[in-house]
Amino acid sequence: MSTLIKGGTVVGPAGAVPADVLIDGEIIVALFAPGTAPEGPEIIDATGKYVIPGGVDAHTHMELPFGGTFASDTFDTGTRAAAIGGTTTIVDFAVQRTGEVVPDGLAAWHGKADGNCHIDYAFHMILGGVDDESLKAMDHLVGSEGITSFKLFMAYPGVFYSDDGQILRAMQRARENGALIMMHAENGPAIDVLVKQALERGETDPIHHGLTRPQELEAEATSRAIWLAAVAADCPLYIVHLSASKALEQVRHARDLGRNVFAETCPQYLYLTLEDQLGAPGFEGAKWVCSTPLRSKHETHRADLWQGLRTNDLSVVSTDHCPFCFKDQKELGLGDFSKIPNGIGSVEHRVDLLYQGVVDGKLSLGRWVETIATTPARMFGLYPRKGVIQPGSDADVVVYDPHGRTRISVETHHMNMDHSAWEGWEIAGRVDTVLSRGEVISAGGEYTGRAGRGRYVKRGLSDYLL
Ligand code: DUC
Ligand code: ZN
Ligand code: ZN
Ligand code: ZN
């Protein structure tokens, strides 16, 4: 079956051009100057709208085990919400839990995801312990499983944490097998000291989560990761969920030196602040507990992050979608902020939230598409199958209405969460129609996809490997 998306403006990193997009089956087969396409195919009218590659969210955590509970979105609920919000591929983090072997962690993740996803999905692997066995498993994942990126944690001693020696070994191995190392860059042992001291002073409210994770400890870990990667023969390094000006400075400096260092930020750091959390009554601030934490509006973070996106010192916007309900989940931290599960859920809103940046004059149209779709696809070995509208690519396409508006609320969102960190936000733009591999799965607010239609995608090596 063939479909023509007609009358719209196709947007990619290089800018916007009026064109009609012809899809045959699951694949984009041609672009035509307006009005020059052959007659016959089914028409999707995109007049007055943007036609963009489906979003690629390279950082999600469906069902992540954390602090004695699990992230509240399953692969079913989470990928459905993603799809409705214009994201057609996620890269989720499979987890090797500490004490578990990598293949068991991976099998468990396929067990959660396979047959349940509404859109295509791929995995990174969190290494919960770096040793001879996991390093060997890393080679196997890169060579045979389509998993070409590995996340390590400098935070959370005793849980996911790797020490500097383990990090160096994993980086050296990545340099050999072509993988990318993703880093949660916060100095965990130092944070643990601050947390303990705060609790001893009786400071138990959610706000102390952020206050005990100062940006200096993010910057220090970011810098340390950058230098460890240098020692590992310039292993490519990707800093996840970068939140703060001083950490960005480290990345910018490394990139100015020509180092193969990349970073992502997330919508919450571009828009939300510590003061949003402070303003919430009582324990409600727990809704904004995430790591890295939200930063103060009185400092330069948000403006610096937007600038970093423009200058490409920040290459990607992912959500770090890690939803927990308030009831029974966030509430685990009543009386002790350190027991609040860390995470905010936004997988449904990333495309819209970043379009608001275009409207606000903070991001160009081309850069919008590049940071939410094209670069994540290239960074994580999904390109040109994903992240671009060109002949031969999967027909993952979003028709985006720049004149529409989106209101975010727990009443209307599709994520499995009993609250929204973005409650009441009114933003410009609206996802109109979503195609995943040629199939219309969402149109005009009506969802027609189904669980199980999403396929596991084996990824190649990063385009950014040198
Ligand atoms: N880091 C993440 O990337 N996600 C959730 C929690 C965390 O610390
Ligand atoms: Zn295998
Ligand atoms: Zn992290
Ligand atoms: Zn994460």
TrEMBL record:
Residues of the Amidohydrolase-related domain: 50-440
Known cofactor(s): Zn(2+)
InterPro entries noted in UniProt: Amidohydro-rel (IPR006680), Hydantoinase/dihydroPyrase (IPR011778), Metal-dep_hydrolase_composite (IPR011059), Metal_Hydrolase (IPR032466), Metallo-dep_Hydrolases_sf (IPR050378)
Pfam families: Amidohydro_1
Keywords of this entry: Hydrolase, Metal-binding
Catalytic activity, EC: 3.5.2.2
MF terms (GO), sorted A to Z: dihydropyrimidinase activity
EC top class, as a word: hydrolase
The family this protein is said to belong to: Belongs to the metallo-dependent hydrolases superfamily. Hydantoinase/dihydropyrimidinase family.
Alphabetical list of PANTHER family matching this protein: COLLAPSIN RESPONSE MEDIATOR PROTEIN, HYDRANTOINASE/DIHYDROPYRIMIDINASE FAMILY MEMBER
Protein name stated in the entry: Dihydropyrimidinase
